[in-house]
């Protein structure tokens, strides 16, 4: 018997390279309000906990909450118009998703990216690939809370014991464990092996072929 029936993917850093567009929208918000821009490397370290946290980390440390609200809104206006400028699937991802569906697995995405962004990007780059796509919205706790994973399980009717979570960051390790399921961390995302080591990911996939083999293995 195959080990998994449902594969739940993170989005940014796992199936899509989104870092440049996130950086550009953050820097548009920051410079529009008179703050210095951030480098790509800084933004890489800031992502993972949703756009609000990205804005908070990008802004000066003493920025007051009302100003953070304004930066957050400016980010959203820009990102809605520019989330496809430089974003692209990681090499081999489209083929991986096709192969997994052909093998009979159901697929889902859960992301701390805002819900409209998740649905827009999945529809643009992976039309028809996912049974469920869930992003940040009111009433659903952000990762590493298990809420989004639990909603994906509920919408697909999948057994938690036969589902697996795929991500690229410490937030994803924590999410899988909070949800009580297996995790596999990919090696091509927004975190280095050294950054992830303290979180002790149980399994790491070096490339999409290795990931495919892990996801289709027998019990």
Structure explained in plain terms:
The chain has 219 residues and is α/β, with parallel strands linked by helices. The protein has 2 domains: 6-17 and 87-215, HAD superfamily/HAD-like (Rossmann fold, 3-Layer(aba) Sandwich), CATH 3.40.50; 19-82, Putative phosphatase, domain 2 (DNA polymerase, domain 1, Orthogonal Bundle). It is 46% helix and 16% strand. The chain has helices at residues 19-32, 40-46, 51-58, 65-82, 93-102, 115-125, 147-156, 170-179, 193-196, 208-215, and strands at 6-9, 16-17, 88-89, 106-114, 132-136, 163-167, 182-186, 204-205. The strands form 2 sheets. It has a 6-stranded parallel beta sheet, with helices on both faces. Strand 6, helix 8 (170-179) and strand 7 (182-186) form a beta-alpha-beta unit. It starts with 5 loop residues before the first strand and ends with a helix. The model has no long low-confidence stretch (mean pLDDT 95).
């Amino acid at each position: 018997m195959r080990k998994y029936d449902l594969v739940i993917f993170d989005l940014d850093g796992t199936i899509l390279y989104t870092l440049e567009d996130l950086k550009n929208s953050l820097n548009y918000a920051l410079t529009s309000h008179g703050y210095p821009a951030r480098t790509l490397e800084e933004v890489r370290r800031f992502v993972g906990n949703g756009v609000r946290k990205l804005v908070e980390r990008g802004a000066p440390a003493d920025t007051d909450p009302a100003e953070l609200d304004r930066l957050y809104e400016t980010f959203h206006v820009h990102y809605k118009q520019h989330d496809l400028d430089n974003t692209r699937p990681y090499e081999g991802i489209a083929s991986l998703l096709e192969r997994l569906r052909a093998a009979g697995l159901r697929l889902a995405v859960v992301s701390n990216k805002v819900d409209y962004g998740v649905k827009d990007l999945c529809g643009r780059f992976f039309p028809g690939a996912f049974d469920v796509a869930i992003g940040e919205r009111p009433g659903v706790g952000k990762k590493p809370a298990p809420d989004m994973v639990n909603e994906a399980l509920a919408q697909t009717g999948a057994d938690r014991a036969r589902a697996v979570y795929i991500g690229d960051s410490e937030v994803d390790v924590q999410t899988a464990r909070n949800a009580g399921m297996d995790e596999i961390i990919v090696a091509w995302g927004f975190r280095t092996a050294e950054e992830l080591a303290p979180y002790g990911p149980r399994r790491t996939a070096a490339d999409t072929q290795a990931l495919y083999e892990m996801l289709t293995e027998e019990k």
